Prior knowledge:
Blueprint: H1 3-78, H2 86-98, E1 103-108, E2 112-115, E3 120-122, H3 127-132, E4 138-139, E5 143-144, E6 151-161, E7 164-173, H4 175-183, E8 192-196, E9 202-205, H5 220-226, H6 232-243, E10 248-254, E11 257-265, E12 272-278, H7 279-282, H8 287-326, H9 337-348, E13 357-364, H10 367-374, H11 376-393, E14 399-402, E15 407-413, H12 418-434, E16 447-454, H13 461-477, E17 482-485
Parallel strand pairs: 16-17
Antiparallel strand pairs: 1-2, 1-7, 2-3, 4-6, 5-6, 6-7, 8-9, 8-12, 10-11, 11-12, 13-15, 13-16, 14-15
Amino acid sequence: MGKKGMEQNEVRKYLLIIGTFLIFMIGCLLFFLSWLQKDVEINSQKNVATNVERQSYHLNSIIDIQFSYLSGMATYVGERENIFSGENKRLIQSIVKEQDLDLLALIDADGNAYYSNGARKSVKTRNYFNDVMEGKRVMSRPVESMVDGKTKVILAVPIYKDGEIMGALGASYNVGALNQMLFNDIYDGVGFSMIIDYSGRIISCDSGKAYRNINISDNVYDFYVTNKEVSKKDMAETKRNIKNQKAGILVLKEGKKVRYLAYDTLGINDWMLCYVIPQSKAQESYQFVQDRQVILVFVIGGGMIAFLLIILYRESQKQKYMKELASIDGLTQLHNKIGTENLVTEWLDSKESKSGGVLLMLDVDHFKQINDNFGHAVGDRVLYKVGHLLKSSFREDDIIGRVGGDEFLIFMKGVTSEEFVIRRMESLIQYFHELPVEEIKDHRLTCSIGAAFMPKDGITFNSLYRNADEAMYRTKRNGRDGFSIYHKV
């Protein structure tokens, strides 16, 4: 494998390591974000369930208060001689105006009822009447009132006189409106509530929400399964929970929309209080976490990109340095033969080459004798001095290289005048004569130079090199310590 191939292989290995590290970091980030999102979902569901539990308790407490209030009224009513006395009638008429009760009714032992709006009817066939006459405090299933045509829930307590039940005091109560009111102050009133029984039948349903697509005539279990918002398996688990009066939460999915249906026992009959809330609203209090997730992604992503760019930049700089190092002669710090050839060729292939140039080949005369007589260390010292002389004698953008043991090359860009080149070579020969080398101070250094012009003597590195080299050897044949310009024979 060539040097270039080895370098490319090293770069690939390096990039593979970086890529593996970045993939690992991205994987860790995605895992963390997924874990964080899951934690947000779990906590938001817990919060919804907790709110439903509190509201269920609150609703139950309000109903208990209503029962207590009715029991107090029943005690007062029982003190009258006749349950339908004028005083009792005036009492229920005044009370209904002050309380959140639709109707109040006085009911005698035969099931005859007198309502606060003046209506009369018989309720002896009602289940709640039979239960209350047995001394129970009763909350009925929803019934349709024959008085005002609305669906009501009846609260009823027995009326005692001398320890005996003489009748009942009943009140129609809109539990649905109550549970709607309870949920209005959480989640900005966005969700909607329902009261259902163990069979999934809706007893009351919060109305007026444009996004609510379930109606009081629907069965909760069937509706959400039919709409494919929840699987049969998950709904079956929910049915078991509700049958066992156990609280829980169900995740509803309709397309990209996700909602939570939380349910909790009311402690009244077998009813459950349900609350449906969009996931986005339930997680709104965690929005700062999601915002910080985005910031975290951008920060870590930006950091990774910056890290990768820095690594790639440093690697490119390293490769550039290694490439430059490979093209530099270690002794003279000039370009070596490969580096010199590449630079000259690059320039010859560029548009700048139209300005012409000249290639000088220079050889230190009798350099072998210097090595033999004074040693290789002194020879290296001479080459170092020559390299320093050449760098200081030519322009910064001229290309100067050591292309052999004691052989140097100078390419002067944009130079086409023979007179100018001759003066430069004469000056260079004189500089050689004056070049101080302490180890051989009694030995005068000389050099032989050959010159080939571009484009006259060639337009490629090889042709210029060959012709300049031929001119240099002509100088050597003519006694050295001089220069020659290539002329085609």
